[in-house]
Amino acid sequence: MTSGCERGRSGRLGADQSARGRARPRRRRSGAPGRLKGLLVLLALAGLTAGLLLTAKVSRELRLPLRDESIIRRQAKAKHLDPALIAAVIDAETKFLPRESSAGAQGLMQILPSTAEFLAKLTGGYAFRTSDLNQPAVNIAYGSWYLRYLLDHYDGDELAAVAAYNAGMTNVERWRESARSHGRALTLKDIAFPQTAEYVRTVLSAEAAYRRLYAKQLGID
Prior knowledge:
This protein has nine helices and no strands. The protein is mainly α.
């Protein structure tokens, strides 16, 4: 015989087994947590992408800043210049932070007052004042005009024009004459001033970089 206690245990056990044996209906899991997780991943990726783009932009501007692009475009068109060349000269001269040099050169493109007065006479700007060089529009206009003048004088030779912008036409004429005496055109090796040779190298390299990185801002097709 089976005792009542045993019968009770047996009865509960049987009930438990019976309950476990019956298949329970599965709960339908909501897709919300999965969708939320996916959304969070997408947002994280978007944030990472935006952060990387911002970092790249900041890095680019630290290396090659660009300001007053509308003035540069306007002057490049008026003077038939590559806007990237104007930007590269400004970058080499002041990094787009206007100042006055120890030699008295002023503004974004570091124009000497004597050079500005010379250009003012050539262009009919007799009302010119030295203080006008502090205005970006005036400074870039005069610097662009001077670049155009130098390029015309040196028959489109950018290397000679940029060297003259830095070291003056007298020095460049001497270096060109020396190069001609050896039967060749002016090269970086002919520039006697290491600072000017490095300046020319920097400007010509930056010109190519501005053309590549800021084509839209500078209106380059």
